[in-house]
Design goal:
The protein is about 35% helix and about 20% strand. The protein is of the alpha/beta class. Strands 3-2-1-4-5-7-6 form a seven-stranded mixed β-sheet.
């Protein structure tokens, strides 16, 4: 884990992103102040651990409730570094956070865009991957994503210690995999093929 975090900290795109985040944090509450000192582990590394699960052929990735850009901006930075063509769509209804995300995309020249909308109002065709981090219970995520989670969409959800309870609330989930989180001993990454469960 330490080596992965070290590699991330040496990434110029991620360095610039974190610098912008900390600069904006002084006037806009983007992340919890208590996590500023651990931003690389708590937010960047936590987000980056999704990257290996994203197919190289993915054309469009939608990040639900992007907030300060975790995991969406981190993934977009890694996409650019590896010269992948995946277009990242960040959905964030909060105007101030949305403006921050747009500034990050502009400054870092990322293959990404921001939709300043509520999730339930978004409708998009042909979404290959959907991500979410610390947003809502599993059942609610699928309800919020009805407009863009399709049968072939790969869902990558970072979940905490109550994940088993959330899975039990959705007995129709028959194609689900759990990968242990590298940043949270009680957390995991849920990997789900999605639209048929919505």
């Amino acid at each position: 884990m330490k080596q992965i975090e070290k590699n991330l900290q040496s990434n110029p795109l991620l360095q610039d992103y974190v610098a912008l985040l900390l600069a904006w944090q002084k006037s806009v509450n983007l992340i919890s102040p208590s996590t500023i000192e651990t931003v690389w582990t708590r937010h960047v590394l936590d987000s980056a651990q999704l990257f290996p699960f994203i197919p190289k052929t993915a054309r469009c990735l939608v990040d639900m409730g992007s907030g300060a850009g975790f995991p969406g901006v981190v993934l977009a930075c890694l996409m650019k570094q590896e010269q992948r063509k995946t277009h990242v769509v960040l959905i964030e209804s909060d105007l101030k956070k949305s403006l921050f995300l747009k500034e990050v995309i502009r400054r870092l020249n990322l293959n990404a865009e921001v939709l300043t909308q509520r999730l339930e109002t978004v409708s998009m065709p042909q979404v290959d991957v959907v991500t979410a981090r610390a947003l809502s219970p599993l059942k609610q995520l699928f309800c919020l994503g009805k407009g863009f989670i399709q049968p072939d969409t790969l869902c990558l959800f970072l979940k905490g210690e109550h994940v088993d309870r959330e899975i039990e609330e959705m007995p129709s989930l028959d194609c689900i995999k759990k990968e242990k989180s590298i940043t949270n001993s009680k957390g995991c990454i849920l990997i789900i093929k999605g639209g048929e469960h919505v």
